[in-house]
Write a structure and sequence with these properties.
Two copies of one chain form a homodimer.
Chain A (H helix, E strand, L loop, with lengths): L9 H15 L6 H7 L14 H20 L11 H18 L3 H7 L5 H15 L5 H11 L20 H6 L5 H13 L10 H22 L1
Chain A binds a DNA duplex (30 and 30 nucleotides) through loops.
Chain lengths: ~220, ~220
Amino acid sequence: MTETRTALTRERVLRAAIALADEGGIAAVTMRRMAENLGAEAMSLYYHVSNKEDVLDGMVELLGQEINEITSRISGTPDAQGWRAVARQRILAAREVLLRHRWAPGVLATRTSISPSVAKYHDGLIGLMRSDGVSFDLIHHGLHALGSRALGFAQELFDPGNGPVDESVITAMAPELPNIAAMLAEVAHDDPESTLGWCDDQTEFEFSLDLILEGIEARARAA
Amino acid sequence: MTETRTALTRERVLRAAIALADEGGIAAVTMRRMAENLGAEAMSLYYHVSNKEDVLDGMVELLGQEINEITSRISGTPDAQGWRAVARQRILAAREVLLRHRWAPGVLATRTSISPSVAKYHDGLIGLMRSDGVSFDLIHHGLHALGSRALGFAQELFDPGNGPVDESVITAMAPELPNIAAMLAEVAHDDPESTLGWCDDQTEFEFSLDLILEGIEARARAA
DNA sequence: GTTGTAAGTCTTACGCCGTAAGGCTAGCCG
DNA sequence: CGGCTAGCCTTACGGCGTAAGACTTACAAC
């Protein structure tokens, strides 16, 4: 008569959250509803998840894993084609995942810490460009220009608020993120007196802005 | 002994909301706190504002006005300099306003309707480019590429969700927004069989992506 | 077999939130 | 004077995240 339910796990909790968000938007994700869908009580989730913010972090982490599973299969080493074609493919593949999880852009925009899987994704892009000879400095600016377009949508963390970049997160997992670590080592040293820490928002913004405005102008001239 | 307080108005309510958000982030904006800061009760606000969503809409509207007051003073007609220099100035000026209202990107991203003042701002940009001979088609793609960078930050409405663009909002105020109206008339007719309505997200995304990737590549070659 | 311990779950409760329903008050118009 | 309406308030409801702590099970040690 002992009705055995599948045991709760962090992953099951997060998958329940994602299922709810996929179906009803991020507002549909509440601790009570997650619990209900898992046949448990709201407070039981807190054993596997520290709070709701942790749930959102976890959703992003799983999302990143889903993206990496797909994009890692897109030729890590560009053969005949240069980095740009490969990057394009990966970004458009990531976009397809995002299109299945409409809640993701909004949630990504509110994260204050870096998701390991999302970091890994960017690490792959950096490695791709680097292997084709692009300088870390340009890669760095370029990723800012792409912004969240690198993840398949157009949205940028404009409001990090969290002060200087927490490099410890990156350096701690340097073995996993060799390219980010290498870039950080070089670019950070190149510009030690930056007013806003590693990434000067204003500088990055103007770089991107000019890149785009010039691109439009060039196309206008061509027409 | 009748203690006369300043009367509540929609504008005072919205300004209270903005003040709260400026100070404590968007989460600090609650009906009760707004009322308290105004020396009133929460439910009294509902006479001047239909609900909280309306408050957020109103905050964006005032923000747009603040931006327009500044950017409208930046040479509407480019003289010696081309459209690009003027657009750059306007966008960086808008950015400064955004930097004073850190809550704005996140709130803008969640709006489902178009704010008149923000529409007016974009109308100005369109007019600027058009007056310099850029085609509406290219302007249209270009604004998508800029995304929310046109407003001074980097974030794009990826998830309109609201289906096809509600053109009635635009056409209703065509006298106020001559350039948007003109662009819409031309571009919409140009591409009647677009699968996703007026703005094909995928097309726009790829246009922007290629613009940026090519720009990075060009700079890499130049280095 | 009994007991101790820890993991996992649940109960209860608190203070927030947005807002529905409707009451009070003051000024204006007939 | 009586009624109307604009403007503000009171009360209350159902939702939220989660703190505090009690219960239940499983298993190890004796």
